[in-house]
Amino acid sequence: MALQEGLARARGWLAKPRPMLIGGEWVMAASGETFETLDPATEESIVAVAKGGPEDVDRAVAAARRAFEPGSPWRRMTPRSRSRILRRLADLLQENRDELAALESLDNGKPYTKILSGDIDFSTNILYYMAGLADKIEGSVIPISATEVPWPAELGAQGPADYLVYTLREPVGVVGSIIPWNFPLLMAVFKSAPVLTTGCTMVLKPAEQTPLTALRFGELILEAGVPEGVVNVVPGFGDAGAALANHLDVDKIAFTGSTEVGRLILKAAAGNLKRLTLELGGKSPNVIFADADIDAAIAGAAHSIFFNHGECCTAGSRLYVERPAYERVVAGLVEKARRLKLGSGLDAATDMGPMISQEQMDRILGFISSGISEGANIAVGGKRFGDRGYFVEPTVITDVREEMTCQREEIFGPVLTVVPFDTAEEAIAAANGSRYGLAAAVWTRDISKAHKTARALRAGTVWINSYHADDASIPRGGYKESGWGRELGLEGIVDYLQTKAVIAQL
Ligand code: NAP
Ligand code: MG
Questions:
Q1: Which of 54, 91, 190, 304 has its CA 20 to 30 A from that of 441?
Q2: Catalytic residue among 99, 104, 228, 279
Q3: At residue 363, does pLDDT exceed 70?
Q4: CA 262 to ligand 1: nearest atom
Q5: What count of Cα atoms within 13 Å lies in the side-chain half-sphere of residue 355?
Q6: Residue 262 domain-assigned (yes or no)
Q7: Paired sense of beta strands 461-464 and 395-398, if any
Q8: Annotation marks residue 228 as catalytic
Q9: What is the pLDDT of residues 124-180, one digit of tens each?
Q10: Are 205 and 292 within one domain?
Q11: In this structure, what CATH number is given to the domain that contains residue 176?
Q12: How many CB atoms lie within 10 A of CB 255?
């Protein structure tokens, strides 16, 4: 029922081409161009969306800069008022949850009920969590022991006790946020929550495949009372993202996406030395010891890779199993994979929806066939499912060697490789033998082994006897080539602030 209502409201909203949000106004692209966003379950167009280009990015950055000017309504707003706005926005997500979930399911393909809990409730909790931080951004008073630089004698001797030194933590300014298609609304919230908490302003560029919920979220942002120009939403392609990353009046880029584009953004940021946070790819190892609760470990391993169709930066895509448990784990995974029901995200029986695009489906199938041609075997899946929509069967690959492409590259789909091991040292070395370091997990009943392994794994998140458990209070981010900086938790606002030291002679 809720789904039908949500879908009806979504269809009403989709009845006309969707404009972009610049300076509080809903406008079409300066070029007049639009692009179609597709339903990946049917390959049919959902709606035309304004196609933002460099000129629109320019307009949006100018609006964000105006909103950040000293004395603007946003800059004059008290921290507690920002906090209230964040709470209002959280409530608006809940009030519109069925419509948002329907839009997301149409645009991205993921199951509607999973969007409600995994995307919308998590988004809501992030906004509440950050709302609690908005009025707790504090500097400090610093006792000094020396004044160091010789003071002109005619002004009289001054000692450390004659000074008051304190720090102010100020918003970094205009933030360009570039996000991917795997969690479209959630990523928009990941990026806008710290902006609103700290008093920055932003231009948000959603992924070309999934612009819809970011645009609907833009409407809710205005409804929540965020002043015009504070959040601008410019849907478009990579050139719009590049224009943002290159823009000399953008102070920081917050990016989530591929390591490859992360590198391009790093280069683009050099022009005005923008601050950067980068949440990039992963190839996360999941280590099962033979003394683990094997049924739980099998369920966790299946969840780690099949959740969100494997289109998940923290997906547990490399499974290492201690040899005595290997056969049982592989058999359990095959059974779980066979039971998953693929279909439209709008069908209540669906466990897994389609991949986001033809390109992504072909890429995933390409990784699977490269594995086969390098000598790996398919324990289950391995093919496209059906002939309409971008569905890929949940896949488990065995007889994998560490040097194979399917074992090294981020596949970003429901494809798991499984490798047996004999010693903890061997498992840890293999687990750490990736250029990525986003997440990892370990399964064992031995508490000492669990924590020792957690320490040894080089990743920003390590689960013990769990996978994907998450909360707005937990900082997340990458080691190695998985990125820079942390999102969420208390650390999640650090990169949106800069510290000013004020040194006052009394
Ligand atoms: P992507 O190219 O990194 O896209 C992420 C975002 O960056 C999108 O908004 C994209 O715009 C934008 N972008 C593209 N080129 C840009 C440029 N030169 N400068 C600035 N922004 C730019 O990711 P993808 O092509 O969609 O996916 C490719 C692979 O990346 C996946 O197979 C997966 O391995 C990985 N990936 C990882 C994550 C993650 O969370 N770690 C998320 C998504 C993808 P467009 O939408 O117009 O391209
Ligand atoms: Mg789409």
A1: 190
A2: 279
A3: yes
A4: 3
A5: 25
A6: yes
A7: unpaired
A8: no
A9: 999 999 999 999 999 999 999 988 877 787 877 678 999 999 999 999 999 999 999
A10: no
A11: 3.40.605.10
A12: 29
**Which residue's CA is the closest to the ligand 1 atom numbered 14?**
238
Q: How far is 19 from 36, CA to CA, in rounded Å?
A: 12
**Does residue 362 form part of some domain?**
yes
State whether 324 and 244 are in the same domain: no
d(CA 391, CA 348): 17
Q: Which residue among the candidates 99, 104, 228, 313 is catalytic per the annotation?
A: 313
Shared-domain flag, residues 461 and 496: no
Residue 1 is predicted with a pLDDT of 62
Go through 435-466 and write b for each residue having 16 or more CB atoms within 10 A of its CB, e for each that does not. ebbbbbbbbbeeeebbeebeebbbbbbbbebe
Tell me if 487 is assigned to some domain: yes
Q: CB neighbours (10 Å) of residue 383?
A: 12
Structural domain for 92, as ranges? 2-140+169-280+483-500
CA of 366 to the centre of ligand 2 (A): 22
pLDDT of 192 over the 70 cut: yes
Beta strands per DSSP E along 262-405: 275-279, 285-288, 318-322, 377-380, 395-398
Q: Which residue has the higher pLDDT, 157 or 344?
A: 344
Contact 148, 179 (CB under 8 A): no
- Considering the domain boundaries, does residue 161 fall inside one? no
Q: Please give the Cα distance from 327 to 84 (Å, whole number).
A: 54
Q: What is the pLDDT of residue 201?
A: 99
What is the position in ligand 1's atom list of the atom closest to the CA of 236?
47
* Residue 142 backbone dihedrals phi, psi, to 5 degrees: -115, 120
d(CA 369, CA 372) in angstroms, rounded, equals: 5
Ligand 2 centroid vs 391 CA: distance in angstroms?
Answer: 14
